[in-house]
Amino acid sequence: MSVEGRTVLIAGATSASGRAVARALLDAGARVIAVGSDQGRIDALEAELPGVVGERADLTDGDDVLELAMRVHARVGDVDGVAHLVGGWRGGGGIAGQTEEDYRVLERSFTALRYVSRAFWDDLVASPAGRIAIVSSTTVTAPTAGSANYTAVKAASESWMRSLAHGFAAARRSEGSGGAAAAVTFRVSALSGLEDRLATSVVDLWEADASTLNGSVRELAAG
Ligand SMILES: NC(=O)c1ccc[n+]([C@@H]2O[C@H](COP(=O)([O-])OP(=O)(O)OC[C@H]3O[C@@H](n4cnc5c(N)ncnc54)[C@H](OP(=O)(O)O)[C@@H]3O)[C@@H](O)[C@H]2O)c1
Q1: Burial class, 28, CB count within 10 angstroms (exposed 0-12 / middle 13-18 / buried 19+)
Q2: pLDDT tens-digit readout, 144-160
Q3: Which residues line ligand 1 (CB under 6 A)?
Q4: Atom of ligand 1 nearest to the CA of 16
Q5: Which listed site, 83, 121, 153, 159, has its alpha carbon 20 to 30 Å from 187?
Q6: Which residue CA neighbors atom 11 of ligand 1 most closely?
């Protein structure tokens, strides 16, 4: 088992972590679709990593995501994997400082995850090795007052991933299901310096059995 020859979509691909994941997937022989909301940053990524297929979409817009899925299917066919990296950080100020404005910004990453995972659900279920991963935060196990909005959104995203895992398991049991898919949550305290660790961990999702991976939470740490 390996990611070689698989098609993987990176949702939110233009950050340092997205670029590291794209590079590692390309090096491992995968076809990579890199999605971001800014055409200039997508163009720069395509120039930096020849072979990457860039796509611009606002992943918090349901119609944009459906149109993206149609373009991806037309350009490269079904996908085998989704690395969902749309994030963002707002925090501080204790509970009184957990503003609606900050929450609305943070909640966009969860909205994007819901749209993207539903748009590519059938692909992942039908793939012989479907994989979807997010990067959550270690604050989910120890929420602080200053990170309440952020941590609540990450906890919701983790819950969504467990629902995807349940859906994959049910699809596997049902007659006619294509293959073995898995939903995996990575947790990290801070990503800076761990981008290559994340990239390797995403590539390794295709080295392990889906039944072992599905629904798991894996902490990314240095060393
Ligand atoms: N950084 C950390 O220390 C840390 C810690 C714990 C967890 N995490 C999580 O790890 C993941 C990756 O982190 P990161 O710092 O690399 O993420 P990030 O800075 O939030 O960037 C992720 C990507 O999302 C894209 N994006 C944002 N809004 C979008 C939209 N509406 N439609 C399409 N693309 C959109 C951004 O590109 P454009 O702006 O060009 O669209 C960017 O490429 C996130 O889920 C984050 O919450 C990070």
Answers
A1: buried
A2: 999 999 999 999 999 99
A3: 12-15, 17-18, 35-38, 41, 58-60, 85-88, 108-109, 112, 135, 137, 188, 190-192
A4: 16
A5: 121
A6: 85
pTM of the full predicted structure? Answer: 0.97
Closest residue to atom 12 of ligand 1, CA basis:
85
Compute, in angstroms, the gap from residue 88 CA to the centroid of ligand 1. 6
Helices (H) and strands (E) in the chain, counts: 8, 7
Atom nearest to 38 CA in ligand 1: 40
How is the chain split into domains, by residue range?
Answer: 7-219
Atom of ligand 1 nearest to the CA of 86: 24
**Alpha carbon of 16 to those of 8, 113, 191: distances in Å?**
17, 19, 9
For ligand 1, the distance from its centroid to the CA atom of residue 170, given in whole angstroms, is 30
Yes or no: is domain 7-219 CATH 3.30.1330.30? no
Q: Per residue in 170-209, pLDDT tens?
A: 998 886 555 699 999 999 999 999 999 999 999 999 999 9
* Residue count of the chain: 223
pLDDT tens, position by position, 37-79: 999 999 999 999 999 999 999 999 999 999 999 999 999 999 9
Distance from Cα 5 to the centre of ligand 1, integer Å: 26
Query: What torsion, rounded to 10 degrees, do the Cα atoms 97, 102, 106, 108 define?
Result: 150
